[in-house]
Amino acid sequence: MANLFFLFSGENETLPLAELKAIFEAEGYSYTTAEKLDQVVRIEATRNSVKAVHLRSAYTMASALELFSCMAQDQAIIQAAVSTDFKNVLKEGESFAVRIKRVKAYSTKNDTMNLEKILGKQILEGTSGTKVNLEMPDKTFFGVLTSGKLVFGLKLTEIIPRTFSERRPRKKPFFHPSAMPSKLARCMVNLSRAKFDELILDPFCGTGSAMIEASFIGCRVLGLDVQRGMVLGCRNNLRHLDIPHVSYHRTPSGN
Q1: Angle, helices 74-82/112-125, rounded to nearest 10 degrees
Q2: Longest Cα pair distance anywhere in the chain, in angstroms?
Q3: Could you report the per-residue pLDDT of 27-59, keeping only the tens digit for each?
Q4: First-residue to last-residue Cα distance in the chain
Q5: Domains plus CATH for the chain?
Q6: pTM for the whole thing?
Q7: Smallest Cα–Cα separation from 210: which of 237, 243, 188, 239?
Q8: Secondary structure letter of residue 110 according to DSSP
């Protein structure tokens, strides 16, 4: 088990953590929640679990191997950094960068750029033969200021937001005002605890948002809808994204 932390998007207060836990359960990873902060959760789980989160999650923006967590005060941060053995995660000859993100208006007295310099100096002093590379580092150390704390570690994954925006409803060939946004559809699929290669049935498939997102995490998809026009439009959307599928027009009488 490893100490990990995950940074959530700020779009919803409760869905990101619920989605994260559902992914752990769907993929069969045991976990223990150490602390819930604003847009950050600290969790004990296997390091391999972050791969599943990276593949599946809609609302998790980044994951990191936690190295320390402390109060967001300069002296406390320096003491925590001095006590951390960075040689365990940064080998001789490797380059690195330090990035600090502030959630909302927490710890506004802390200058994030200054913190990056302070922590970069401590990492250099605590390792051998390493160097700073802000453009293309071998490894990135990542910290989040939130809820009066700094949670700091080695970044493992980062989700690029544009992947969902490219599949937003108006980007698809068939659009309907009731179409579910791709990020929310992905979250709903995850909350169902769907597993890889499992068959997912959407009985009200509409424009196909849930089917599309289920396919992107490796599920097989089957859709039904009472409106023939929706079924045809859904098929166009799935074909546009080269997604194998089966979709049927279901009449009100069930025939």
Answers
A1: 20
A2: 74
A3: 999 999 999 999 999 999 999 999 999 999 999
A4: 52
A5: 2-158 (3.30.2130.30), 164-249 (3.40.50.150)
A6: 0.92
A7: 188
A8: S
